[in-house]
Design a protein that fits this description.
Chain A is of the alpha/beta class and about 375 residues long. Chain A folds into two domains: about 180 residues, Quinone Oxidoreductase, Chain A, domain 1 (Alpha-Beta Complex); about 140 residues, NAD(P)-binding Rossmann-like Domain (Rossmann fold, 3-Layer(aba) Sandwich). Chain A is built from twelve helices and 18 strands. The interface between A and B is medium-sized, with 28 and 28 residues. Strand 15 of chain A pairs antiparallel with strand 15 of chain B. Chains A, B: It is found in: Mitochondrion. Chains A, B: It holds the Pfam family ADH_zinc_N. Chains A, B: Keywords: Fatty acid biosynthesis, Fatty acid metabolism, Lipid biosynthesis, Lipid metabolism, Mitochondrion, NADP, Oxidoreductase, Transit peptide. Chains A, B: Belongs to the zinc-containing alcohol dehydrogenase family. Quinone oxidoreductase subfamily.
Chain lengths: ~375, ~375
């Protein structure tokens, strides 16, 4: 069996290859025809994206063919299509999407890793082209994951939860009892930060926007384990630290908003603290007083998961994915998503673009 | 001689102590009467500072009495008097001034360090109260320095040149051939950065204000060893890096201005670079785009010499002072200053406050 072509029984009949050829001719194994979301030029996603049939792809001896199960629409996917993301797939006929979970459909005869048809796998590090029904890539691309979690969590574990986990680990040595502060706390990264911090015994101070429903949003975050949640206007006081009560002054802050919401983090941080910027939802820059640098000794840094991934961290990445999916399985990591069938891609995209008001994260279900 | 009271011959007669007492009674040795610049409350320096007679101070057995030779008026001295500096001497009757050079006048009988009357010494780390004619402090305060450099250099070596040296060492590992960028390049710290970098084979890209005489200022900085000098408006181009010619993109930048001049440093820095803020001459904050943090991976830090001094760096500080004064002696470190007699303190202060237009750094000569 080790060197045999392994196929899911139900699909074996659909693959064409000549039984009369010697075994090396197994290289003529092909994927099923696939449907993909493509773009030929950068621009508004609802104008430049198209769903197209993609012809079967030949499997190399160490290739694995997977059938996608689920893939999210992340803001960075939108930015790549728009052409405003620094790393983008080459045009034309770029397949969109960057993360997701798949089921192994067939493996080439020389595949050596313990990956079998039926297994759930994740492209790890993530890579371009997850918005399509079948994908063929070398075995090294795929990381086998547990299949006892909801498919939408396996599909989204690599970008948002892993960002939260890395930011908690890479900048400041935190000990149980320490506190951190973040804005954009209702984002999925924000929710992951709260829950992952809680697992480590780290307290979280959370900043959210002033808007209708902010009391309900506060309650939701507290149910996830948030220690304190403030709206921006609540922090608009002179002695902001008096609001912290028994919580220690935070040594680390996460900013995904910019503008005033970033300044509030700088105000709350303790002497010598660090603020990490990983997003700019307000589209406003970060503004910092000279004394914050000189007398308060604050450090300002940035985090970009894609750069971290590029620095030869494949094995670390896989260990973290397993850790995060274990937390999901234990009920310690959750966030709201909506599964939308791939056949309704246009609807899922419109929801992601905000055309239907505030919506949960869209995850394409194949 | 080791345990004898040592005095400068010319002043021995002026000190009163009873020759009939046993030697331990040398503790009743007093400094000469002194004149000091004092303040009793914070406020505008030209209103709250006063020159006053200070009574003789008793020397302890391990005290050293010095006669000040020269002490600069630094911007931080002004800020301490104004009350806007985070660390200030207690009021009332605080003696102003923070650095300077002195000549040893007398040493207590139990002084063990090789400090003798006539030696030049520097309070190192610097400490409050250098704007007075005689000072008594424990022997550990004083660092003996060479006396073959101009007195104004010994008086000013600790704050500005040491800031430049530390900033070159503490943030980024630089190798010969690397480049750095700074704004406020005509400041004394800026001039020191240029010269200290040159000693290490590091190239400097310097930013100065647009103003009448900027061509002359450029020429002066180039004579000190600056590789490139630009006015802010010259850098107001889209492809700023095309101006660097053969210079490598800088990994480190120093900001003492803020506002647009800080943004220009961020533009010039290479991917993953660090900007260190140590001043805010424009009184404008530092503004940073989200993408500078995420995609360009810039780090923003601060430097404050007084905090560095507090972290138990006395020995390091003294080694650096010796190194810097050796460079002065070799003609490799220079900057413009004006010696003004202590008797004309009011004039020196007015010049430092900008009342007489742009003036060189004022150094009080005692």
């Amino acid at each position: 069996m080790a060197s045999a072509l392994r196929l899911l029984p139900s699909t074996a009949a659909r693959l064409r290859f000549s039984r009369s050829l010697p075994f090396s001719a197994a290289a003529s194994l092909f994927s099923p025809p696939s449907k993909a979301v493509l773009y030929d030029q950068h621009g508004p996603p609802d104008q430049v994206l198209r769903v197209a049939d993609v012809p079967p792809v030949e499997l190399g001896e160490r290739d694995v063919c997977v059938r996608m199960l689920a893939a999210p629409i992340n803001p960075s996917d939108i930015n790549r299509v728009q052409g405003v993301y620094p790393v983008r797939p080459p045009l034309p006929a770029a397949v969109a999407g960057y993360e997701g979970v798949a089921q192994v459909h067939a493996v080439g005869p020389a595949v050596t890793r313990p990956i079998s048809p039926g297994d759930w796998v994740i492209p790890s590090p993530p890579s371009f082209g997850t918005w399509q029904t079948y994908i063929v890539k070398p075995e090294d691309v795929w990381h086998k994951v547990r299949d006892d979690v909801p498919v939408e969590y396996a599909a989204t574990v690599t970008v948002n939860p892993l960002t939260a986990l890395r930011m908690l680990r890479d900048f400041v040595d935190l000990n149980p009892g320490d506190a951190i502060v973040q804005n954009g706390a209702t984002s999925i990264v924000g929710q992951c930060v709260i829950q992952l911090a809680k697992v480590q015994g780290i307290r979280t101070i959370n900043i959210i926007r002033d808007r209708p429903g902010s009391e309900e949003a506060k309650e939701k975050l507290k149910q996830l384990g948030a220690d304190e949640v403030f709206t921006e206007s609540q922090l608009d006081v002179k002695n902001v630290k008096s609001l912290l009560g028994a919580l220690p002054e935070p040594a680390l802050g996460f900013n995904c908003v910019g503008g005033n919401a970033a300044s509030l983090i700088l105000k709350l941080l303790r002497q010598g603290g660090t603020m990490v910027t990983y997003g700019g939802m307000s589209k406003k820059p970060v503004t910092v007083s000279t004394s914050s640098f000189i007398f308060k000794d604050l450090s300002l840094r940035g985090f970009w998961l894609q750069k971290w991934m590029n620095s030869d961290k494949a094995e670390d990445c896989r260990i973290m994915i397993d850790y995060l999916l274990a937390l999901v399985q234990e009920g310690k990591l959750k966030y709201e998503m909506e599964l939308t069938p791939f056949s309704e891609f246009g609807l899922a995209l419109d929801k992601s673009l905000g055309k239907h008001g505030s919506q949960p994260k869209q995850v394409l279900s194949f």
